[in-house]
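BUG: 3D viewer hangs when loading the predicted structure for this chain

Environment: internal workstation, default settings.
Expected: structure renders.
Actual: progress bar stalls at 90%.

Input used:
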Amino acid sequence: MPKEMNTDQANLDQHLKMQAEQQQIKQNMKHIKHKILVLSGKGGVGKSSIAVNLAVWLSMQGKKVGLLDVDIHGPSVPKLLNLEDRKLQAGGDKIAPIEYSDTLKVISVGFILNNENDALIWRGPMKHNVIKQFVCDVSWGQLDYLIVDCPPGTGDEPLSIVQLLEDPDGAVIVTTPQQLAVTDVRKCVTFCGKLNLPILGIVENMSGFVCPNCNHKTNIFGGDGGKQLADEFETPFLGSIPIDSNMVGSADTGKPFINFNNQSPTAQALNHAFEPLLRSNENNIINNKEQDKMKIAIPLTNGKLSQHFGHCEQFAILDVDLGSKSITNQESLTPPAHEPGVLPKWLADLNVNIIIAGGMGQRAQQLFNQNRIDVVVGAPSEQPEKLVLAYINDTLVAGENICDH
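C-alpha cells produced before the viewer hung:
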C-alpha cells in the first residue's frame, strides 16, 4: 500500500477516535448543570482550600456537587477531605468517584498513587490523557455543580480542562494581597481572556491576620491587592478571607473549615464570597426559563446552507421562540474575514447559541464551543427556515461532516 494511503488511513482513524471521544465527553457532561474552575497565578495562595470549601459549601446548600482535582503533581484534595486512604474503583465501564458525602463526589490523581510521597513525572500528553479520562470515564451522574481545582499557573492542566469541558461557566481566581501574587494573577486573567473563559470573580485569600485576643487586624502581606486587580480588569470581587490558624488546623486534619467552623468570622467571609456564585447561576437558570429564546446561525451560499463552512457568503441569523417552536425574526449578515477565531467571536457578540453547518473542522468547532456556541454539523443544503424548524422540532437529520479537517 502506498505511503500516502497509509497516512490518509491513519488520519481518518485518528479523526474517528477524536469524534468518538468528544461524543463520550458530551454524553458524560450533559447531566452537569454548572462547571466552575478554581485558578491561581502562583502556588501557596490557598487555591485548593478555596476549591474544597466552595464544593462543601455548595453541598451544604442542598446541591449535588462533584469536585475534580486536576493538580497532577500536587493533588491536595484527598488530604483536605481526609480521604488519603481511598482508592478509585471501576464501576462497570466507568470509574466510580469517591463519595465524601451523599451530595459530594470527588476525583483526584491522589487516589491512584501508591502513597502520598510518590512523584508523577509526566509530560503534557500523559497529563492530558488522565484529565480526559476523569472527564469522560467517571460516572459523575446528575450534578448541579462540578468544581475543578486546577494547578497554579497557565500550563497544560488548566488548558486541557478548559478545552475538554468546552462550556464551563467560568473561573474563580484566587490570589493573596501582595503584589508578587497579584502580578502572577494578571497572567491568569490574560489566560482566561485568550480562551474566552468568563471570570466569575476574584477571591483575596490570607487577607490580614485578626488577633483572637484584641481583634486588631495586621495586613501581613499588604492589603487590597485582589480588590485592586478586580477593579483593574472590571471583574467581580468576591471578598477577602483573613488568615485564621483554625483554618490551617482544619486543612491539616482533613476537616473542611466551612463545615466545622461555620459560625466563625472567617467562615462568614467564605459564605459572603461564595453566595454570589450560587445566586448568579440560579438567576441565570430562572432568566433562561423565562426567556425561552434562542439565536441560530446558518452559513449561506446562494441562499442555502453552505456545505463548506469556510466558503460561506453570508450568515442567516434566526431568532427562535422555543415555547411556540416558531421563528420570530430573521436577517442575513455579511461576515467578517474568515480568519481563526474571528467568526466565533463575531457570532458570540450577536448572542448566537447554535450554528447549523454542513462541514466544519475540529479546531473551528472547538473555537465555537469556547465561545459558548453549540455546533451541529452534517446538515443538508436547504433553506435556513426549513433547517431551523426541523432543528427545534427534533426532526433535523444530520449526515456526514463532509469537510472536516
